[in-house]
Design a protein that fits this description.
heterodimer; A: alpha/beta; Rossmann fold; 7 strands; B: alpha/beta; 35% helix; globular; binds thiamine diphosphate
Chain lengths: 416, 338
């Protein structure tokens, strides 16, 4: 300890700029400053365009579904109605799963959970626009990818409760899924690390002359990490066949997107790296699907990376450890001007005459019941508190391919 | 005197130093408006404003680098890493820059940065919310590394750290943020309310960095530990009935070798306990110190009880943690040898 600087000095008249939030508790939600262009207004460029040709798309918002649920404009994707119905089903299923798991956490059956409410269209539409050989590098809010790739929900649940059937052997917190068979990369707790790894995976695909592409997701807050910038640089330098998505859901725990966006859009960041960059309405299933198809085709045909900002809103808390009412205006999620992705696709399908409110209600009920059934099956294989779990000594496995002597000794010290 | 949890004591330390010195400020993810995910910076935003309780982007490397620059320009930054596990993105700035600035510039520049980081397991945080990386930092030249075990110590040591002109890595064992912990999930979490170390003065006081505390005196074996494990060790010693001297190191670097060696010279036996993994952990350094200074006094091999050399597992926390049972066995083993 020293005595320097210990005398109290008059407080500074600080001129430091600190960004503000869109809202705080006690004030009404206010999205009036958002600039939301009409659906159908954004042009659809050629896939061999370069970044500067389409820089406007990094500042506007690609939208297909208008307020009445009609699909309009050049970005309308070629997609069959039964595919759209499938997409709707997946989204409703994800929401039912999230609700169930959240409640189970509240009842102490799992240690933690994270919902993606309001963001379902992103993972579901993107997974449907990709091919099964494409590699996914998700963050923790893209459970929809697993649904589209038909991961068994029972297996997902078994992971979340670390029971004897958890494919991660009780080692990971809930939601940090991994599923090699489905080309779904192991989720890390350390934010943004997967982003530049995805680029590396895509570089390998190009190196081997293959046509598989990689897709990565990162949150708006996580774009502040150095790994985010490494990803853009490597993707641009090696023209890697990769889709780099920023899921801008407006909040990173209590911190608004203004602490990472630097007063511009996230998509704008791609332009400096000369990567074609687009901003899309993340609550518009058709727009997300169309943009992803476009980006995937570019990557597959060798035109390099695409950078996409998925513009959306995190309706629920950050996780089960979070109380959003402590840092943002109550009801902000409801005031989100781009609506709810499930409602919007539902409305579209009803307007096409292929869906109805009654069918929708029946679907939600069917999937809630099926999730309940899955949960019952999952806990029949063991629960977090009571087990059975993987045998404890398995914690010493997989640290290395072969167990070295020091670990073998430690395992023996455990008495096993 | 007030009763405080460790979280409140840390908050009070920040408040006291900010009130006293306008150069002190806090910065980190969610530390401003929200008051920190563990509530350590609660109320500072309201009291001192957004430019002294500064929310930061999720960029640990950026946070530490900015703190270095601000520190060089006369301020006293206290930065929070949301979890000690997320200190790694900042490691180049800490190791290559913060730690060495004074030395490499011939003493011309330095940055009095305090890096606070909640560490340790026992909260079902899995492998990236449970680590104890202190050994990485004690290996670096130019950093002071601290880990308190009580609210009283946390406040006094944190004030010392902030007022220190050297960079300090201040680890906060989050398992004992709200009360002591005796080693197993099934044991109710006790509150600091009922514990003498929960008595914390409201005002400014300091505890010198580099001084261990003798938690309890004893004659048969010296137990060296710090952080959460002080409480687990205390409970284990009690359960074993062994007359052990328990030393809470508090400061790992600089290390109070005098207190340690005087104790081992007296007891002739030594058990070292930490939650961090074993190999190249801080315990290895302690073993070396003790055997160099006390070789002729030792009546038994020095024992280490540590976390296993595996990433921290979600489902097997209590098996991973040095348990009371493992500690008691180690104590008994050292006493068997003459
Ligand atoms: C390297 C690192 N720093 C901090 C954290 C703690 N943390 C977990 S999630 C989170 C917020 C992430 O926000 P964002 O990237 O916007 O994603 P969202 O949760 O909104 O989907 C933070 C700070 C972490 N997991 N990893």
């Amino acid at each position: 300890m020293t005595e320097t600087d210990q005398k109290a000095e008059p407080a500074y008249k600080s001129r430091l700029f600190v960004p503000k939030a869109s809202s705080r508790p006690g004030s009404p939600p206010d999205f009036s400053t958002l600039n939301i262009p009409a659906a159908g207004a954004a042009p659809k460029p050629d896939i061999n365009c370069n970044a500067l040709d389409i820089q406007d798309l990094a500042y506007s918002l690609i939208r297909v579904l208008d307020d009445k649920g009609c699909a309009v404009g050049p970005w309308q994707p070629e997609i069959q109605t039964d595919e759209l119905l499938k997409g709707l089903r997946h989204m409703v299923h994800v929401r039912a799963y999230d609700d169930r798991m959240f409640r189970m956490q509240r009842q102490g059956k799992l240690s933690f959970y994270m919902k993606c409410t309001g963001e379902e269209a992103i993972a579901v539409a993107q997974a449907m626009a990709l091919e099964s050989g494409d590699m996914l590098f998700p963050s923790y809010r893209q459970q929809g990818l697993l649904f589209v790739r038909e991961r068994s929900l029972v297996d997902m649940m078994c992971h979340c409760i670390s029971n004897a059937r958890d494919n991660l052997k009780g080692r990971q917190m809930p939601v940090f899924y991994s599923w090699k068979e489905g080309n779904f990369f192991s989720i890390s707790g350390n934010l943004a690390t997967q982003y530049s790894q995805a680029v590396g995976w895509a570089m390998a695909s190009a190196y081997k002359g293959e046509s598989h592409i990689a897709s990565a997701w990162v949150g708006d807050g996580s774009t502040a990490e150095a790994d985010f910038h490494h990803a853009l640089l490597f993707a641009a330098t090696y023209q890697a066949p990769v889709i780099l998505n920023v899921v801008n859901n407006q909040w990173a725990i209590s911190t608004p997107q203004s602490f990472a966006s630097a007063g511009t859009t996230f998509a704008a960041r791609g332009i400096g790296f000369n990567i074609p960059s687009l901003r899309v309405d993340g609550n518009d299933f058709l727009a997300v699907y169309a943009v992803t198809k476009w980006a995937a085709e570019r990557a597959r045909l060798g035109y390099g990376p695409t950078f996409i900002e998925q513009f959306t809103y995190r309706t629920e808390g950050h996780s089960t450890s979070d109380n959003p009412d402590a840092y943002r205006a109550a009801g902000e999620g409801k005031a989100w001007p781009l609506g709810d992705p499930i409602e919007r696709l539902k409305q579209h399908l009803i307007s096409l005459g292929v869906w109805s409110e009654e069918q929708h209600t029946a679907l939600a009920e069917e999937l809630a019941a099926s999730v309940t059934k899955d949960w019952k099956e999952a806990i029949s294989y063991g629960s977090l508190d009571e087990g059975p779990h993987w045998p404890i000594p398995t914690m010493f496995e997989d640290v290395f391919k072969e167990m070295p002597d020091h670990l073998r000794k430690q395992r023996q010290q455990m008495g096993i | 005197m007030a009763k405080m949890t460790m979280v409140q004591a840390i908050n009070s330390a920040l408040d006291c130093t900010m009130a006293k010195d306008p150069n002190v400020f806090v910065m980190g993810q969610d530390v401003g408006y929200f008051g920190g995910v563990f509530r350590c910076t609660e109320g500072l935003y309201k009291k001192y404003g957004a430019h002294r309780a500064i929310d930061a982007p999720i960029a640990e490397g950026g946070i530490v680098a900015a703190a270095i620059g601000m520190g060089v320009n006369g301020l006293r930054p206290v930065v929070e890493m949301q979890f000690a596990d997320y200190i790694y993105p900042a490691i180049d700035q800490i190791i290559s820059e913060l730690a060495r600035l004074r030395h490499r510039s011939g003493g011309e520049y330095w940055a009095p940065v305090t890096v606070r980081a909640p560490c340790g397991g026992g909260i079902r945080g899995g492998q990236t919310h449970s680590q104890s990386p202190e050994g990485i930092f004690t290996h670096v030249c130019g950093l002071k590394t601290i880990m308190p075990a009580t609210p009283y110590d946390a406040k006094g040591l944190l004030i010392s750290a902030i007022e220190d002109d050297d960079p300090v890595i201040f680890f906060e064992p989050k398992r004992i943020y709200n009360g002591p912990f005796y080693g197993h999930g099934s044991v109710d979490q006790k509150s600091w309310n009922a514990h003498p170390a929960g008595e914390v003065p409201e005002g400014h006081y300091t505890i010198p960095i580099g001084k261990a505390s003798i938690w309890q005196e004893g004659s048969d074996v010296t137990v060296l530990t710090y952080g959460t494990m002080v409480h687990v060790a205390e409970a284990a010693i009690k359960a074993s009935g062994i007359n052990a001297e328990l030393i809470d190191l508090r400061s790992l670097l600089p290390l109070d070798t005098e207190t340690i060696t005087a104790s081992v010279a007296k007891t002739g036996r030594c058990v070292i306990i930490h939650e961090a993994t074993r190999t190249s952990g801080f315990g290895a350094e302690l073993v070396a110190e003790v055997q160099e200074a006390c070789f002729w006094h030792l009546k038994a091999p020095i024992e280490r009880v540590t976390g296993w050399d595996t990433p921290y597992p979600h489902a097997f926390e209590w098996e991973y943690f040095p348990s009371q049972t493992r500690i008691i066995e180690a104590l008994q083993r050292t006493l068997e040898t003459n």
